[in-house]
Amino acid sequence: MSHPTSQATAVLTERDNIGDDPRFRAPLVTGVNDFTSVTDIVASIAERKPNLYWWIAFGGAATLCGFFFSLLGYLVLTGIGIWGNNQPVAWAFDIINFVFWIGIGHAGTLISAVLFLFRQNWRTSINRFAEAMTIFAVCCAGIFPALHVGRPWLAYWLFPIPNQMAMWAQYRSPLLWDVFAVSTYASVSLFFWYAGMVPDFATLRDRSKSKIGQFAYGLFSLGWNGSARHWHRFEKAYLILCGLCTPLVFSVHSVVSFDFATAQLPGWHTTIFPPYFVAGAIYGGFAMVLTLAIPCREWFGMKDLITMRHIQNMARVMLATGLMVCYAYAMEFFVAWYSGAHFEHSLFLNRPFGNHRWGFWAMFLLNCSGPQLLWFKWARNNLWVIMACAMCVNAGMWFERYVIIATSLSRDALPSSWAQFSPTWVDLSLLTGSFGLFFTLFLLFLKFLPTIALSEIKTVMPQAHEHAHGHAHLHGHDRAEEKH
Amino acid sequence: MSSHASQPASGGCCPHAAKACAAPSVYGMIAEFDVVGDVRHAAEQARKAGYTKMDVHSSFPIHGIDEALGIKPTILPWIVLCMGLVGMTTGILLTTYCMADWIPHPSWLVENFKGYRFIISGKPMLSIPAYIPPIFELTIMFSAYTAVFGMFLLNRLPTLSHPLFSSARFRRATQDRFFLAIEAEDKQFDAKQTESFLQGLHGVLAVETILD
């Protein structure tokens, strides 16, 4: 079945593609794989019955998700008084969780759009994953501000709908900018993800043996038949979408940071917030991609497609963005000192030594110390170390938002209104439960949808390039040949 | 389904007169390949031979296939640009209208527009800098939706049924094989000649006639 040139492809072990020798282009798909086997690897995950790992994970996640929705019911029926929010800490877990989840979403678009524009071909193995993660993280994120408004059934007031009260949404407020940014981001990411999956749905449709599968995948594939004319427009649309999503992804977390930066509160009113938030979002997002990708490649037989090189590249991006985040932390302290503003001084002393100091030190140790291990080659070669670093960042980035929101609000410029914040069991359970929703959606994605962008990964295989008959051919040569 | 009695029912197709043929009409002919280069060369040769109504079907975009088939650049980017500008205009009008306390109008026109006179954070009624984020997001939203939906509509999708889907062989077009399809509507199309042309191509695995 295999194609003649694939016979000549050297057998590569997992380790062979992590070298740094610039004379050799590292293969992005390892092992003896051709178009047939790559299709089989990815499609079989959706075709066969899920394995035990999946059932265990799904059972846990779905239970947690059910718990989450029951709590939402309790919350809507009772009111948000069951949260620990108070005056002045009116933004607490709800907004912390919102910023946390929306930040995680950013890595998906970064991998899909920004790395595409930079011609980072290694993204093809992980972009589908990361896009799915974006959608599900944005789902989790969207729930919290909707509840935060207090009466979620009136949340449509956020949108500019003509109404009998002659009231408009307030366009001068960053909170409304957020509505536009997040709703644009959620819908555009969803269409981007779906459009990319259409050709792969067609693959699943054509392989499916069951009537339900043929019907469902057939419906979602919209009748895609792989026509070269269709591919031509598809590629153009994909490039345009990447060009549009790149400024979009940077704008979304910048706008989220404006919610804070335009306020007068000490610790919030800084110009460093937009880049600092974007770097933090990418940091947290890559950590979550690693958290999902490492177990998935182990359990679903995708080691040839998500190779050690992919994991290492992600670890490097995580290290780099982590350093930007550490720089932002340091710069915040410097600016607080250099500004000479009394309240800024006091707040930044309060962060490491005041009422929420454990939050600050958790953030500092988890975000700035743990992941520094990734400087070392042995650490980047050890999946357990990478996984541990990613876990540090997942937790650390949550604490970062906790520190920003809780310390500043509980110690504002007027000491008479100072108050302590402590979360209730509902706060903690909603945070835990949102992971249930996230993982339930993600596991359903793993089971039913094309997990890896088949049509994209095939384009980075040597067989997709006419003259690569097994020998080490450089991409540039192939491109030159194509011009003829 | 035709009721033309003079035609043989099992002919599949009739040479030289595809249009006049009333028995199961022919959609076209497909040739199967398993090497990217072969299908690209096949497309080039078919184009040289004068075929125009043809297409290549593959599970991923093949580099150089546009040139081989003579596919013209799509108009999609221009549509996206236009809709992006429409989105930007919508954003400007929406924000300024919603926040305005006065609307220019001719003196003879009765108007009862009172506006939404609510000052926030000391910004003026018309504070363009504060409107930039919604305007920007609406520009992106209109452009991105157009890129996705425009692409599918220009591709005439969704079209859930297609004559090619009747071929069991063609199912591999979305997996690991490559197909050159020549439609019967092509002026050059001739059941025998086209079949021998396709059979003669380098690397061809199979040739199949597709009924409409």
Q: Would you write up a description of this structure?
A:
The complex is a heterodimer of chains A (484) and B (212). Chain A has 484 residues and is mainly alpha-helical. Helix content of chain A is 67%, strand content 0%. In chain A, helix 5 (127-148) crosses helix 6. The longest helix of chain A is centred in the middle third of the chain and has 34 residues, at 174-207. The relative contact order of chain A is 0.17. Chain B is an alpha+beta fold and 212 residues long. Chain B is 37% helix and 11% strand. Chain B has 5 helices and 4 strands; from the N terminus they run βαβαααβαβ. In chain B, helix 3 (76-99) runs antiparallel to helix 4 (128-154). The termini of chain B are close together. Chains A and B meet through helix 2, helix 6, helix 8, helix 16 and helix 17 of A and helix 1, strand 2, helix 2, helix 3 and helix 4 of B.
Which bin fits the share of residues in helices of chain B? 25-40%
Number of separate strands of chain A: 0
Total number of helices of chain A = 17
Biggest sheet character of chain B: 4 strands, antiparallel
Rg over C-alpha atoms of chain A, rounded to the nearest angstrom: 24 Å
Q: How widely separated are the two ends of chain A?
A: 30 Å
Mean pLDDT of chain A: 86
Tally the helices of chain B. 5
What is the averaged pLDDT score of chain B?
A: 84
SSE string of chain A: HHHHHHHHHHHHHHHHH
Indicate the radius of gyration of chain B in whole angstroms: 28 Å
Instruction: Give start-end ranges of low-pLDDT stretches of chain A.
Output: 1-15, 468-484
Are there runs of chain B of 5+ residues with pLDDT below 50, and where? Answer: 1-14
